[in-house]
């Protein structure tokens, strides 16, 4: 094909595409004009429809109030808490080791059960130690008899020395013999006590009130002084140790030293749902700040009557440092986060809403917060329905739990219904 024909075909194709496009662009206008003439509307009818769409209160504009839930700002005494993650620690932890070596005869405790101070929790074979004690007692009695004989001999010769029947040198020997036997008897008494202590060590006694852990030996095992039998933990009362940032040190120290009552501490479960025990009290503030974390350590004590706090457990801690009188409290769900900070929608006298910036000073329970500025007592704030609002929106204020009523139909809606559905209903009848 020659170059001439190629150019001609391209021109023809461009003309065809242009004609189709022109046809499509002008077809709706023609149909619209024709349709309006067929219905008898004319130019006047179209103008009237356009005007009706733009009139205030017409179908093109919705002034229906937005139903929202509002609650008032209230004033109340608000406790101020510092929160932290704490670790439960036993009041006392004792690893029980035997103090003498021997064969384990009996284990007298149940693992995981409570033991009392002074209870015999295990017994080592005492026979060897009993024999040693008996020998020590016998040796003491033997030496006491020798001492008694020596004392009698000294007394008899003491009466004869004046008449010259006994030499003075012999008297010195008698006196020294008595003194020597007295010292021997004292040593025997000490040896007997030592043997008795070793014999008593065959009974392993609980040194504290606590809970027994898992035992490490069984009856029949030969144990030494390095063998760990069981670990006992005292959990009533019990400690909770937690850390706070160093910027809270001054407030905590002032409250701890100057407070009329002890600082209360609450231990909550990991979900902050409920307290695990009765309220505890701050007992100790550590004497230094950890330079690696910038925190300081505190220790609280709980009575733990139900053993709900367990050693090694992680808990959420709330330390009450002070109480604010007349704090402004609102529901937490009323506070919204904006680009410039927290705000709430406040109800105005004309039933519109306005954005009010607020500063949240702390949590009050699980569902409320305290604000330090931005609101006054009695101000109504929106708690539900905020996503449909903007500053100046008209609202229908409802109390919590109320159901919004359906809006009344306007005159335009009634007229539209009569011209449409109402007439169709009559024709069908």
From TrEMBL:
Domain spans labelled Multidrug resistance protein MdtA-like C-terminal permuted SH3: 328-385
Name under which the protein is recorded: Efflux RND transporter periplasmic adaptor subunit
Compositionally skewed regions (Gly residues) per UniProt: 419-429
Positions of the Multidrug resistance protein MdtA-like beta-barrel domain: 237-321
Keyword annotations: Cell inner membrane, Cell membrane, Membrane, Transport
Gene3D superfamilies cross-referenced by the UniProt entry: 2.40.30.170, 2.40.420.20, 2.40.50.100, Helix hairpin bin (1.10.287.470)
Signal sequence residues: none
Disordered: region residues: 33-69, 392-429
GO MF entry, a single one: efflux transmembrane transporter activity
Main subcellular localisation: membrane
Ranges where the Multidrug resistance protein MdtA-like alpha-helical hairpin domain occurs: 133-202
A Gene Ontology cellular-component term: efflux pump complex
UniProt keyword Transport present: yes
Domain named Multidrug resistance protein MdtA-like barrel-sandwich hybrid: residues: 92-228
Family membership: Belongs to the membrane fusion protein (MFP) (TC 8.A.1) family.
Localization per Swiss-Prot or TrEMBL: Cell membrane
């Amino acid at each position: 094909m020659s170059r001439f024909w190629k150019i001609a075909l391209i021109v023809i194709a461009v003309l065809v595409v242009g004609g189709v496009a022109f046809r499509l662009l002008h077809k709706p206008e023609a149909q619209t004009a024709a349709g309006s003439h067929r219905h008898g509307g004319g130019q006047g009818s179209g103008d009237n429809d356009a005007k009706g769409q733009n009139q205030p209160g017409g179908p093109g504009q919705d002034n229906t109030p937005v139903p929202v839930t509002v609650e008032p700002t209230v004033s109340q005494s608000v406790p101020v808490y510092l929160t932290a993650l704490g670790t439960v620690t036993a009041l006392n932890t004792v690893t029980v080791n035997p103090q003498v070596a021997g064969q384990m005869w009996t284990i007298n405790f149940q693992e995981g059960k409570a033991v009392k101070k002074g209870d015999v929790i295990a017994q080592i074979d005492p026979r060897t130690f009993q024999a040693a004690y008996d020998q020590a007692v016998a040796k003491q009695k033997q030496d006491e008899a020798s001492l008694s004989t020596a004392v009698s001999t000294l007394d008899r010769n003491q009466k004869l020395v004046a008449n010259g029947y006994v030499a003075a040198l012999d008297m010195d020997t008698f006196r020294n013999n008595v003194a020597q036997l007295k010292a021997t008897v004292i040593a025997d008494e000490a040896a007997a006590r030592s043997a008795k202590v070793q014999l008593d060590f065959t009974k392993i006694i609980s040194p504290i009130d606590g809970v027994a852990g898992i035992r490490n030996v069984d009856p029949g095992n030969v144990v030494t002084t390095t063998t760990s039998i069981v670990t006992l933990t005292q959990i009533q009362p019990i400690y909770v140790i937690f850390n706070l940032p160093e910027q809270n040190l001054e407030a905590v120290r002032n409250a701890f030293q100057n407070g009329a009552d002890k600082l209360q501490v609450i231990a909550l479960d990991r979900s902050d749902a409920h307290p695990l025990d009765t309220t505890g009290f701050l007992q100790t503030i550590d004497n230094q700040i950890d330079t690696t974390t910038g925190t300081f350590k505190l220790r609280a004590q709980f009575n733990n009557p139900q053993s709900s706090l367990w050693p090694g457990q992680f808990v959420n801690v709330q330390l009450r440092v002070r109480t604010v009188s007349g704090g402004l409290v609102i529901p937490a769900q009323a506070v919204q986060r904006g680009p410039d900070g927290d705000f709430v929608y406040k109800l105005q006298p004309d039933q519109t809403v306005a954005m009010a910036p607020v500063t949240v000073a702390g949590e009050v329970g699980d569902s409320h917060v305290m604000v330090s500025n931005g609101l006054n007592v009695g101000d109504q704030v929106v708690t539900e329905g905020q996503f449909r609002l903007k500053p100046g929106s008209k609202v229908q204020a409802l109390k919590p739990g109320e159901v919004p009523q359906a809006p009344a139909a306007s005159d335009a809606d009634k007229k539209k219904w009569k011209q449409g559905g109402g007439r169709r209903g009559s024709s069908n009848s």
